[in-house]
Amino acid sequence: MPGRVLSVASEYVPLVKTGGLADVAGALPGALLGQGWDMRSLLPAYPGLIEKAGAGQEVWSDPDLFGGPARVVMGQVGADMVLLLDAPHLYDRAGGPYGNPKDFPDNAQRFAALSWAASRIAITGLSDGWVPDVMHCHDWQAGFAPAYLRFAGDTRVKTVMTVHNIAFQGNASAAMLGELRLPFEAFNTDTLEYWGHLSSLKAGLATADAITTVSPTYAAELMRGDFGMGFEGLMAYRAADLHGILNGIDDTVWNPETDPEIARTYTRAALGRKRPNRDALMAEFGLTGIDGPLGIVVSRLTDQKGIDLIVATAADFVAQGGGLAILGSGEPYLEEALMDLVKAHPSRIGLRIGYDEALAHRMFAGGDAVLVPSRFEPCGLTQLYGLRYGCVPVVALTGGLADTVIDANPMARMANVATGVQFHPVDALAFGQALRTVVELHRDAKGWAAMQKRGMSQALGWDTSALAYAQLYESLTA
User: Fold this and answer.
1) Region 165-181: what's the mean pLDDT?
2) In this structure, how many other beta carbons lie within 10 angstroms of the beta carbon of residue 51?
3) Which of 186, 224, 279, 310 has its CA 20 to 30 A from that of 262?
């Protein structure tokens, strides 16, 4: 029997976003409504969010939430109900959700407060009578919420902990146990302790009734030392409670048939209409003379995303007739290396430092291939956008990239099922070979178009994922 879910997250599209966590938190409520589950989303009231959500009704309060008064006010985003934790002493400050530009020194208290409020709401419900059956917590920022509930002795509300990226662990000094309202006896290797420190992520992983992550392959990877980042033992211990559920995308926003941001809309059946978008993108980036595939990169510019592999292979790709349009920001040394590439190949490689959502849409519409050479990738949305727009993904064989792209190996080509190109191991040699394969495939215009169309025909929305989450909730509350 479907019920009520309290989603706890630090980001939520369209109110606040720094990464894919926001997309998931923003998409799940609407997707789960179709499965009969009523989800309300709790997040901090960063500056301006109360006005954006039209939040006015107070539904919970605390006179002293980690140093000051707090209240939860309810608003609405589209058809979704959002709960904003209004605690000015914690969240009313300039900058991003986590810092300006460095992390705020009190982030442990700020997000412990979010977790504490979530746990109290789970126990007592809201003043309008709404009481959750499940509390769904996202990443380290909500990691203490299942622990607070467990320490309070409440077993009625079932808890789900979702790992979007295990590299972010919410570590804090063990000296903060009392300040964060955590019992000293729980500071042990089974619950809170992580290499002598506190870890809010570990707290959630150790105490939640179920753990999910954002792809089946990433779930398996987390039980191995190469990917678990110190949590592989705990993840293996909880393997029976670990579920890999692929993310989806908003296939109404990301839709080449109706996208208002692109030069010309197109469909799978009218793929030839994609060409004007390529021409417009080349003009926007000042590119000329590209006879081969136009590759795009829309990414944070970090080692995790394999940007150094793009630097290492770009010259060879250009020599084979390819070109690159790159959008992103990140590590200064990688930004500088990409700028040097542009100087060396000014008409074949273009770069925009920063992020521009509308430009991203134009890049997927105009690109021939999207390059995603990540060293690890829990799920990834970039390759899904690529599939949706007929922009063939070139991906490392890891995490959600492995689960969503069918490699154009000889057997897949013979069976007419390939949707992209995968490579392994994740190094410059293998990536360079993958780019040579892309150039070769692109020369066969008919075969390339067939691969684009197969990608565009994939079901990439949230329906399948929402059903998996609904079944998990049902199994916990049965």
Assistant:
1) 96
2) 9
3) 310
**Cβ–Cβ < 8 Å for 15, 49:** yes
Q: Do residues 351 and 426 share a domain?
A: yes
pLDDT tens column, 192-207: 999 999 999 999 999 9
Q: How far apart are CA 175 and CA 108, in angstroms?
A: 12
| Tens of pLDDT, residues 57-96 | 999 999 999 999 999 999 999 999 999 999 999 999 999 9
Answer for the pair 232, 256: CB distance below 8 angstroms, yes or no: no
Q: List, in sequence order, every residue forming a beta bridge with 88; answer none if it has no partner.
A: none
Distance CA(394)–CA(292), nearest Å, equals: 15
User: Per residue in 108-162, pLDDT tens?
Assistant: 999 999 999 999 999 999 999 999 999 999 999 999 999 999 999 989 999 999 9
For the whole model, what pTM was predicted?
A: 0.92
477 φ, ψ to 5°? -100, 0
Q: Could you tell me the two tokens for 377?
A: 């990738």
For residues 168 and 173, what is the distance between their CA atoms, to the nearest angstrom? 16
Q: How many domains, the chain?
A: 2
In this structure, the answer to whether residues 440 and 470 fall within a common structural domain is no
Predicted confidence at residue 187, as pLDDT, reads 96
pLDDT of 218 > 60? The answer is: yes
Residues 325 and 468 in one domain: no
